[in-house]
Request: fold
Amino acid sequence: MDNWIINLIEQGGYWGVALLMALENIVPPIPSELIMGVGGIAVARGTMTFWPLLIAGTVGSTLGNYAWFLAGDRFGYRRLEPLVDRWGRWITLDWQSIEAASRFFRSHGQWVVFALRFSPVLRTMISLPAGLSHMHHGKFLAFTFAGAAVWNTLLIHGGRLLAHYLEGAKDAMSWTVIGLTAATLLWYAWRVITWKKTD
Reply:
């Protein structure tokens, strides 16, 4: 089986990776683990290099999170709540969850923007309460970029290790990537189908 998913990332290049990583933080269900992991496989194959991939992925991730930050900062609680109530199912998020995240943000401080970059679920959600709290834009971008850079470095190295582990077994590598993609889509579909507002 041809490594079509890996080839798709390679053909999109660094700009494509940046775009996918931005979308990953705006539109589910595109996981950064898959994008940067496949990028790491491309690094192991010699079709991409580490630093441009890391920079592209980190810039994309930062911009995607910044979109959520700006939504909170510009819309505020009053205008944002009706939008979340209407469209929350598709981002599997309700207003009660946003309020809980906002309380967490206020009680633990702005450093959580950096720390939660390593949380699969909360790393995007925390951008909204940061915006609602009108955190300084420069500090938000710096914390987000730094946290995303560390996380993306780990993902790239993970992809490189996977590529070496599966070296000589191209079909296994393809099926691994396809399996991760399918699992992500199924998880998102399950979240949408079973989603309920918090009472």
